[in-house]
Structure prediction request, 223 residues.
Amino acid sequence: MDVQIAPSILSADFTRLGEELRAAERGGAGLIHIDVMDGHFVPNISIGPMIVKAARRVTQLPLDCHLMISDPDRYIEEFAHAGASMISVHVEAVTHLNRTLTAIRGLGCKPGVVLNPATPLVMVEEALGFVDYVLIMSVNPGFGGQSFIDGSLDKVGRLRDMIARSGFNVHIEVDGGLGLENVAAVVRRGAEWIVAGTAVFGTGDPEKATRELRLRALEPLTV
Prediction:
């Protein structure tokens, strides 16, 4: 099982972004998660392709771009050219999901699909053959520092069963309210990629926080 920590730069100190990313990388981060918000699909505005381009200059880790935006088709090419390695879109924001996911792969990026907390798993069942990963939101998207929605554990487990039945090789990523107290439980249910913002960059020591979170996430695999 390929368990990776994906620190979210939404919680990083942008005056020291290069240092923050290098510290997380030293701590064992496997991906860098980049939350893109437009103030329309979610009630917040965050960052765009220029930050992706800046992050690409300071790390060789895969850049995991999560597009929390309306009409993502207009922007996927721009993010791909900026250096994104992975691009995920919300099933709630895309009209022709197959077309969008195919376009992402055609740009050389791994395509992913995202589900909000109240969106049922059936919405992605037909897309499993076109994605590399499914991102389960365990908070309502738009802001960092929110509490984990407990029902997300069951949802992750049900998604793992759905993927197993499908026969496709699809990773499960989870984003929202994750930390030392609950990351092992999420991994036990089948999550592989763990997004953490406040739990990494809100500690003052992202290297140590990433290392500790990774060790806790790996516990279910070593017992």
About this structure: The beta strands are 4-7, 32-37, 63-68, 86-90, 110-115, 133-137, 171-175, 193-196. The two ends are 14 Å apart (CA to CA). Residues 153 and 186 are 6 Å apart (CA to CA). The chain has a mean pLDDT of 95.
